[in-house]
Amino acid sequence: MDKKRGSREYFEGVAKFVEFASLSARNGKILCPCVKCVNLISVLPNVARDHCWASGMLNNYKVWKFHGESTAATTATVCGSSHVQETLNEYGDFRGMLHDLCPPHEMAPEPMEEGPTVQHVDEGMNDEANKFYKMIDDVDKPLYEGCTKFSIFSAIVVLFQLKTLCGWTNKSFTMLLQVLKDLLPSDAKLQKDHYEAKKIIQDLGLGYEKIHACPNDCMLFWKDNVNLDACPCCTASRWKTNEASVASKNASSTKGKKKAAKILRWFPLKPRLQQLFLSPDLASSMKWHVHGRTDDGVMRHPADSEAWKMFDTKYLEFSSDPRNVRLGLAADGFNPFGIMSTSDSTWPVMLVPYNLPPWLCMKRSSLILSAVIPGPTSPGLAIDVYLQPLVEELRELWDVGVQAYDASSKEIFQLRVALMWTINDFPAYADLSGWSTKGGLACPSCAMETDSRYLKNGHKFCYMGHRRWLDVDHNFREEVASQIIPDTEHFVGRCLGRKCQLAYNKRKRGEADQSGWKKRSILFTLPYWEDHKLRHNLDVMHIEKNVMDNILGTLLNLKDQTKDNYKACLNLADMGIRTELHLQRRSDDKYIIPPACFHMSSSERDGFLQVLKDVTVPDGYASNISRRVNMKERKISGLKSHDNHILMQQLFPIALRESLPSHVTRPLIKLACFFREICSKTLSVLDIVTVEADITVTLCELEKIFRPSFFTVMVHLVMHLAAEAKIGGPVHYRWMYLIER
């Protein structure tokens, strides 16, 4: 390749290369390594030979890894750009990354004349191809003369990766580039600012679109409404208004660009799904749920679940191709600045590809960011407005699909997609499903059959009556679409914006709430959504945390957290039950709360907390829980969700044993065992049926111990977790830990 093109040595070398490459030909074709095809086009060996004779062979292609040669079998050539490419391996295979973005494709062979002549393959190339070939050139060009560590392309990619990992601002990134330009030699090909550097990254694809939204969440200025300047529902302006703009309103000419009041960032799904199949290893992993999964009746993955199998049975055409993708949708709000007092909240919408095996499925790298909904407040029911682009794309991916290239089988196929369910905390459950998770009908599983009672003294609802599930053969109540659709018919077409919602609620104030529905979810526009057996998941993470908070607050009598106070005693008197726990009069104007079986003495509380204080856990297993224990004030505070997870399933049963009577500790330990069983990595239907029957008895026993105020809706939802696990499979594919992290 270093010989002069046209020399006898060059012709003989190319002939020897073609002879070697033909040994690993696929369907009689090899990748062409000429400077025009750059190992992207599959051609016949004699065509590749003619291309290399006419245009020249890639000078840096020293290790013929695309033609059957092992990297280890060839000694490194320390010269020119090839040395740059080899030393770059410690930062990543950038050429391989570009090949994943644009995989090889076959070109129909054309009749070639004798001798070293060839038709130029760059004729008629589109802009995308030209961008790709320019990036290929940038991969091979050193950052400056003599640089052996970085090329023009790899330097920017590595810097952007550090920017993402370390949270650098755009301004700090520009300042860093300016300093690096002063430090590096004058011939360094480094961009001057963030804007110029971002252009290179944008050529890799995976960008996003900005869609303007109504400030009151009524609509998107999108498609037919893209040219409107004001919302037709609430008449709010599409643009930001400030004092400067008002002052210059009557001026003859205005400077500057209008700024949208609210912007949705939408990341199109199709290119991201296509890229899942561009890497041969990842493309193979996307078919694991059919070709790699062990089907022995044990649930280790959503593919083992009843919901997945039911969907496969109903939609045979979709399930016949293992490459068709099943997704889970997760949405949650967070503060991007990390300051609790700041009201600027952002709502990312993420997708989880469930085709992947367990060791890849719930990894951060597998998440697909679909949309970023702006703050500063939660979108509430209007989240449907912001999901419109995604839902429309999901419907198109179901009806038509998108053409994708499978790098593992080297073929083009029509990729289709189905959304399986949503993953969200309980408030977001209401926003996505349309069922109100507040009030007397707060349980979405029981729906209209929710057994609740309003506590007049506590001004809250309690959810008891678990005795109705004592029959082991009770069935999980399904939300049958044939019931949901007529119940939500009057919501179709109603504006979900904040002002419209306030006006609607004002008109309805004083009327009895006969239904828990607040809207019909936009997800029902997907043709298959009504056939799903499980549409929205109860989040085990938040339920476990809230139940643990209830227990600790009550047992340790923590201020503002205990469910055992004088109001709870008054509620018992109003209900006319458990007279031994009613308030007891000590004098004419003083009452005392009588001791209950779950009350700890000072010594028992000290013993309970001392066990937690002495706990030392392995690094990475949990946070330092002992630091959360305050022995002087006899309290525990500052626990995170995962701390409550470790407490409930591991530490709490141990610390509780010698602190309370056995008839109190027994159901609490059984509750901890229930969460441990539900959160297991593997589940069997028989085991789930057993724990479902046990948790019914456990909750009934807890009703005999604690006061009604203890039984919030989160405690009640424990009853439905086993049934959902039986339908949806292991909970660690359906909870919020990954999303919140």
Feature tags:
single chain, 741 residues, alpha+beta, 4 domains, 8-stranded mixed β-sheet, 3-stranded mixed β-sheet, 28 helices, 38% helix, 10% strand, elongated
Outline of this structure?
This protein is an alpha+beta fold. It folds into four domains: 1-81 and 88-124, no CATH class; 141-205, no CATH class; 265-423 and 480-532, no CATH class; 540-740, no CATH class. Strands 5-4-6-9-8-7-12-15 form an eight-stranded mixed β-sheet. A three-stranded mixed β-sheet has the order 1-2-3. A two-stranded antiparallel sheet has the order 10-11.
What does this 3D model show about the protein?
The protein has 741 residues and is of the alpha+beta class. 38% of the residues lie in helices and 10% in strands. The chain folds into 4 domains: 1-81 and 88-124, no CATH class; 141-205, no CATH class; 265-423 and 480-532, no CATH class; 540-740, no CATH class. The strands form 6 sheets. The chain has an 8-stranded mixed beta sheet with strand order 5-4-6-9-8-7-12-15. Strands 1-2-3 form a 3-stranded mixed beta sheet. Strands 10-11 form a two-stranded antiparallel sheet. A hairpin with a 4-residue loop joins β18 (629-630) and β19. The two termini are 50 Å apart. The model is unreliable at 71-89, 105-126, 243-254 and 474-479 (pLDDT under 50).
